[in-house]
Amino acid sequence: MKTTLMMLVILIMTDCQLKDDLQTDPANTLLDREGSIDIVVCSRGCYQYVLSIPTIDGQLFPVNLDKTLEKAAFDYFIANQNQGIMGYPVVFNGTLMGDSTVISVPAPNDVPTPKFKARNIELTAIRKR
Question: 34 near 88, Cβ under 8 Å?
Answer without folding.
Answer: no
